[in-house]
Design goal:
254 residues; alpha+beta; Thrombin, subunit H; seven-stranded antiparallel β-sheet; 4 helices; 14 strands; globular; binds 4-(aminomethyl)benzoic acid
Length: 254
Amino acid sequence: MRRLLVLVLSALLATAAVGTAAADERIIGGERASIEANPWAVHLTDVRGNQFCGGTLVAPAKVLTAAHCALGRSPRDLRVVAGREDKQDRRSGVSVAPVSIWIHKQYVSADKGEDVAVLTLPEALPYEPLPFAEEADAALYEPGTRVRVLGWGRTAENGRTSRYLLQATVPVQPDDYCLDAYPQFVSADMFCAGYEGGRVDTCQGDSGGPVVVGGKLIGVTSWGEGCARRGKPGVYVQLSRYAQDLRPVVYPES
Ligand code: 4AZ
């Protein structure tokens, strides 16, 4: 009975949300993004189709996501949804179970670093992958660099996740700013991004998803205190730091 009520209420809310979509689209403080322009953007769901994380196609059959999105899950309990901008549009794109999950062997928790995982798909997908940053790409993390974050996560700290793919642009902050915000911040393995006043950010459900600059995947959405709060930037995996660990998993044939 309660579940029916929840179902009816969420249906009503979903209808209401469609009507006001243009007024306040977000990740938080963001806007709609098309899947055509961002074909490598994927989301992860459970077997029932509930979306809980993001990911990026980095090779035709490899999805990079956060370790905390994959940990404790079996491949058969997971689905990678690709080619689908609207989570409710079952006719677009594909939903596939991975055949295997690789989690960085040093991963403990998101705020300790190594928050990376790779899902291997049963076959190549017909969507353009996005290459990840490598050792030589350190300049892409310079403070002030405006980076693009994408996902289907919450559009308010305690709100619902987004039906549509959203994007926002946030500036990379200097390491001392990130450390002031979070004493556990690990400068070598992470970067943080956001405005000092907050307002624009990733949120729950965006984890595992892409941070993009200059046609490269430079980060993975990882953690933060709340969402879009003043003085609490989003924290992202500094992918160039993990390129060496990722290459043999993403390109096993080479
Ligand atoms: C999360 O819980 C999460 N504001 C993702 C991103 C941020 C905070 C939390 C950054 O998945």
